[in-house]
Fold each of these.
Amino acid sequence: MGFHVTLLGRGNLSGEIYRRLRETILERRLRPGEPLPPSRALARQLSVSRMTVTVAYDRLEAEGFVVGRVGAGTFVSEHAAPVSASTRERKGGALRPRAVWTGVELPTAFARPARYDFRTGLPDARLFPHRVWRRVMTRTMSRSERAGGVYQDPAGIPHLRAAIARHIAVSRGVRGDADDIIVTNGTQQALDVLVRVLLAPGERIAVEEPGYAPPRHLFASLGLRVVGVPVDEDGLVVQALPSRVRAVYVTPSHQYPLGVRMSLERRHALLAWAERTGAAIIEDDYDSEFRFGDRPLEALQSLDVSGRVAYVGSFSKTMLPTLRVGFVLVPESLRLAARKAKFVTDWHTSVLVQSALAEFIEGGAYARHLRRTNAEYRARHQLIAAVLSRDFASVFQVLPSSAGLHITAMARARSPQQIAAVQARAADEGVAIQILSSFAGRRSKRAGVVLGYGAIASGDIEEGLRRLRRVI
């Protein structure tokens, strides 16, 4: 590798090379056994004489930091001791982040592995057709090698946008075409693109309470005033929307985390509110591909006649979170601005992944995968609901849910603090759950648990719930 040493204005060149190499070795940037650059090559790189470099190398060898091997070169000694954290010079830096970042916590929900994993937001990677995807990716990479690499349309490749538009039209009744689609790196970027286009710092955006925390933090980081609005058994309480709200973010088909779906009456009320106030509606349809009960209500976007709804979707739940692919379907009036916002954010999403996903959808593999996973998740959903109703009736009230990858149960006569204690003790038993109070933007008095069934095998569900019952 190249080795950087600043010698401009330095008098003792050998000494400076020595100090820089010694520091690099002590900080383990050059690890024991790794070679130093040949003295001739380093001298040429630094525009100094070979003797200057040799003097530095000889000093390092004399002090035991490196060893020379005849005919092989100079290597970092196995006995070179690293600098400890307590003795290493630390520089705090004069720059300080904005205050908004003190309230954002990095995700830790998935940091600790669990034998019985009921955490939400995780599909079962074992159900994913890895071999099919690998073949599709191989073909895509071969075509990419022949075509060469150039930057693409920020909105995404036309083939994928067309495939997405057809899929959501058939599966969800969403109206729009390929030109309305912006391919993004997951839901978070779709929301980022939308609020950059729609809202200015200081304006108000409403979110569900309780709700998905990352969008709340995203909106605040962009300078928006985030207002929580309560959710009941019919979804977002439209009458509780405050004045001067410029947009509202909702999950109407399977509210996160309560799992309820917004009633048709409430959907019409929300659309009428947006029309009356001139506000935008951001509809996150994050996991409605998985449906186990009655026919789902129409997406908000399909009921919208004035172009006020932006529809956000993701492949993280239906395929794999690691793919980081999502999309947003925007009203025609936002097409150009949304493409510009995506461009200034990161230009475009990985073209290799886009091309493979387009073939995966168009070739029918995606539909087959959804059919298979729907059947499996339906069985897990029914099993968890049955066990909760049978063995936890005195502890929890299960909220109705007929879609998605999680079930929520409200606690009877227990506080959020007691449920948090249950969560901690369950973790010691190898059972990972999430608690309802953690989804509230402000301190919540609602106590309950949120149980995902995407990551846990059907054969482990009853034992996991038995351990949870024992802890309670």
Amino acid sequence: MIAGSVALFVLSTAGLAQGVRSLGMGGLVLPGPAASYLNPAYAAFPSLYGSDQGLRLPIGLLGLLRGEANPLRFFYDRAGFASPNGGFDALTFYDQFTHLGEFLINPASSNAFVNPATGYPEINLEYSASGVQLTDYLGRPINLSLSLGQPTGVRSSGALTPAPLFSIPFGLGGGFYGDVGLFAGGFGLGVAPDANLRRAIASGRLDPDTDYALTGSASGQAGISLGFGFATALPSLPIPEFGTANIYVGARGEAFYGLGYFEGSGRAIFRTDGSGLPNQAPQFESTLFYSYPGAGFGFGIRADGGVALESQGIAAGLGVRNLLGLASWSGTQIAVARDGTSTTSSSSRGGPVFAPAFFLNAAARQALEVGEVVYGADLGYDGRFTTHIGGEYILGPGRVRAGLGWEDGLKFGLGAGFSGAGFLADAALTTHQAPIVGGTVFGIALSIGFSF
């Protein structure tokens, strides 16, 4: 049995979607019981390729102590907190806070757009009769192919809940099992031009009597989930000239009770006149929807299914979450119109949905003359595509890992681990795309475990 040395590590990290071993292989998820959240059939699958047994340390908390990411400076160093140079940077805080399992070496920073004359970030929307463009403070065009974040609310994710921060599994016998967990996620920041503005920037031409808008958006949700599932092995299937294939099937249902949900957007809009010239200063409008117990109600259910096969050390599986579901959040919506007037009303998000999320992965384990190697690949779709390929070389208690992946941008991983009598440790160097400003952020992740 593997246990952690500090209970906080369990609460903070046990439910992270990718463990340190996975990060070291570029984010690869191998077939096995640890992937049963993505494919219920894996709940009955043997652990052929090992798993992330150690507890991932929340070393990102150390990153929140650095000056530009530390919100606590507001209470003991307000002058430094508000300083235009070296003060608190909300983008750095957001990037580190959403990656608490990693210490980010170069987190996202709004300094990419800081005007030295003022010390504050500036993004300018410039337009004239000759065209329109987004620029920094020097008038340099901003590349719109940046990674701009991905807010994921009910509208985009259907009845899917984020992966749990932590969960407590329990067996019910006869192939039945259950789990209860706390989830918080779906966090996203987005900045994007609308179709008209993107087209105008590409062509350098403004059309007459047309609205152009730059939209910012954000979302997040949290709640308690309760799942029940069943998984079993079917009779083996002989395959001519290949051998015998072991087949596993599984199904899982999940219900959740919402603890909080928010979804907001804001738009900066300008309109051209009949000659294609901007006829007024930009106008602004925004919408915010929020729900929490006492000021709304959130609940949902969904059904998942999956199948997996294994033969001669080679395995593959297909899981489908949200085959059918329902997600409903009732709460309050605040809308601010272009003329500055605001309205507050009761509103809701969600409803019956069919928004399936697919996950396919495969792996193999092969003995070498010295040591052995595990390698595999995966492909997922939950409103966006993700894919990873990676491997691990095992020699005695030592492990070396590497891999590549795509998650809203290219990422790679390098890792190493040790698994000895009574102790195991893993480390990984991983990357992700910086929100809003783009670019590659490097992070270091660690995990430890003890056997009793």
Amino acid sequence: MPPTANAVFGARLPVAERYAEFLATAGVERGLLGPREGARLWERHLVNSAVLVELLPGTGDVIDVGSGAGLPGIPLAILRPELSVTLVEPMQRRTAFLEECVSLLELENVSVVRGRAEDLAGEIAADVVVARAVAPLDRLLRWTLPLVRPGGQVLAIKGAKVAEELTALGLSTEPGRQVPRRALRTLGVETVELVCVGDEIVDPPATVVRATRSGR
């Protein structure tokens, strides 16, 4: 466990440790994480997910789309018990894992929904939808924006291909807020922003695309 774990989770570190242990055992055994991920579990997965908390509101509803092993939703729920977090995952074996995990960690602010994001519009909605390593940005926004309340946001943790994905949508790769082209505005995107979080905690910091839905 790196020193950054304590810096991020603070008093909630014991809960995060139980989650890490469950990921390193049951998560690997059931194929939710690769066998080599155990050695970099904290920095690559838990801390990288947890720093997204900087962009979340103090209260409200959060949906984690394509939650998989619970990333980033479970670290965020651990850190913010005042948030209501819904983990959305289409695969039954993964939802079973998530339900076990929620029970083990006694996360009363977390629920698990089996389904695809694109099929759940009108059934669930949140102030913020988060996603990590789910799909290219154009497809992800089509799936997630219908789940975001007017004025809410999609927060997508992105990796090395973020510049390529932004360029494909006609967006700047420079950090800062920008008004998207018509194709995204038709989806309801009001602004798009590339931000870095955890820059004083993790190296490199996590890269996040923040898309704000129109308030109408």
Amino acid sequence: MPLSTPAPRSPLHHRAISIRGFKRDDGLFDVEGHLHDTKDIPFKLVSGERPAGASVHSMWLRITYDLTLTIVGAEAATDVMPYEGYCETITPKYALLVGMTMRPGFSERVRTTFAGTKGCTHLTDLIGLLATTAFQTLAGQVKHDAARKPFPLDRCHALATDGAAVAKFYPNWVRREVSDSPPGDPPVKAGGI
């Protein structure tokens, strides 16, 4: 269902983010993101004015990782920025992602490593999106061990192991009584439907 009809308005800013995941020939995986900002009106910066429709930011980030979700390569590039000659000097710092594992605690480590003047706000924002895309890129690439809890369970509202969706689609992984069954359905006991 789409959003409701908005109040009358005028466009000012457009941020487009594109992220793609790839399997490499060497068995590793790449996730590459591009952030692109434009303004719908002329935009005055202290470094100069950008005409309507001109790029304000165009930034890239690629991470390479293995099946353990460990980052083995990272590269950033800034093509368009507000402060040319200054903004792009931080891009080599994103090599600090190498060695990090996209597991619990990853977001906090990223915030600490690239906080404030230690990073670029826009490139750092891309990291979390790349990490979630990294998980999606691996989907279907690894044979699942039936004895291990499927990765997506308990990682979002719909797939809570005490929820109705898990009771329906992953009955072997239901824990305790399901409390959020669809209206009119009785709660489901652990162990299946």
